[in-house]
Design brief:
Largest sheet: none
Shape: globular
Helix content: over 70%
Order of helices and strands: HHHHHHHHHHH
Structural class: mainly alpha
Strand content: under 5%
Number of helices: 11
Number of strands: 0
Radius of gyration: 20 Å
Length: 290
């Protein structure tokens, strides 16, 4: 019986995920936003003519590698919380409570959607970078393998964390406001736009606490030649540490996300939803309902 239920949830989640991917591709506004995220690093790579300090490597190559990590980070830390909060406000989570297997199918669909967005974003950025900015690509099978495992582990590190954040944020407007500024700070200090060695030591230590720094470092190891090691603080790619830190964040994210999502779904009711919608209609969307 359990195996039959699991297959049913997988089929339902896959169908829902495919539908959401199709809706994404047909939405000009959402696709435009993703294209802008890809266009920005390409423009920077074309216009910045400096070399990475201590090397002859174009700074644009480092930026493309760094923004590849940031696109994955953004999916977990910006897109996932907004999806969860928006769908909660629209009553989607409440409807899932009344649907047998609704929560597992929902999570499978969201996983498929995020994987599709991640693969599409990386392929588009790296292909456009290679064609328009002579950007970097993995040099061999080992580098391709590194690209894959760092991307997968990076998603596992940030998607559950984003889900946990989305479970506690009050509404879509505050969701964007509360997480955008920290994300932009991490973008600057994590070595995605320029070598982290340019930052003060204390800033480097702060950046090392968060997954973006290690995602960017892992993807640089996959995309850049070893000559780029001259700009790395440790003088090496530290791939075991990349794996360790991202795994730790993945475990922490799951430990936080599962109980928070359960609590959020359990606490949803028609009266709470109606109350939030009344407050939003009266211009008080920023105030949570007790």
């Amino acid at each position: 019986m359990r195996g039959t239920e699991t297959r049913r949830y997988l089929r339902a989640g896959t169908r829902r995920g495919v539908i959401e991917l199709r809706q994404l591709l047909r939405s000009g506004k959402e696709m435009g936003g993703h294209l802008v995220n890809v266009l920005v690093p390409i423009v920077l790579a074309v216009t910045v003519n400096d070399a990475v300090p201590g090397t002859e490597l174009p700074m644009g190559h480092l930026m493309i590698a760094g923004f590849s990590a940031y696109l994955l980070f953004q999916l977990g830390m910006l897109n996932i919380p907004q999806m969860l909060v928006t769908e909660r406000e629209e009553g989607a989570l409440l409807r899932l409570r009344a649907t047998p297997g609704g929560i597992p199918a929902y999570l499978i669909a969201k996983a498929l959607l995020i994987v599709g967005m991640a693969v599409g974003s990386l392929v588009l950025l790296l292909t456009a970078g290679a064609l328009l900015a002579d950007g970097p690509l993995p040099a061999g099978p080992a580098q391709w393998l590194t690209l894959v495992w760092v991307a997968v582990l990076g998603l596992l590190a940030v998607v559950p964390l984003g889900a946990a954040i989305g479970a506690v944020l009050p509404n879509p407007r505050e969701a964007l406001a509360l997480i955008m500024l920290p994300s932009m700070v991490l973008l600057v200090i994590s070595g995605t736009m320029f070598p982290s060695t340019r930052m003060p030591q204390i800033v480097q230590q702060i950046a090392a606490l968060f997954p973006l720094k290690w995602m960017a470092q892992g993807l640089r190891s996959a995309l850049l030649p070893d000559s780029a090691l001259a700009a790395e603080a440790a003088g090496s790619w530290e791939l075991p540490m990349v794996a360790l830190v991202l795994t730790a964040w993945a475990v922490l994210g799951f430990l936080l996300a599962v109980p928070l999502l359960r609590r959020t779904t359990r606490r949803e009711s028609g009266s709470r939803l109606a109350g939030r919608q009344r407050k939003a209609a009266m211009g008080g969307a920023g105030a949570p309902v007790a």
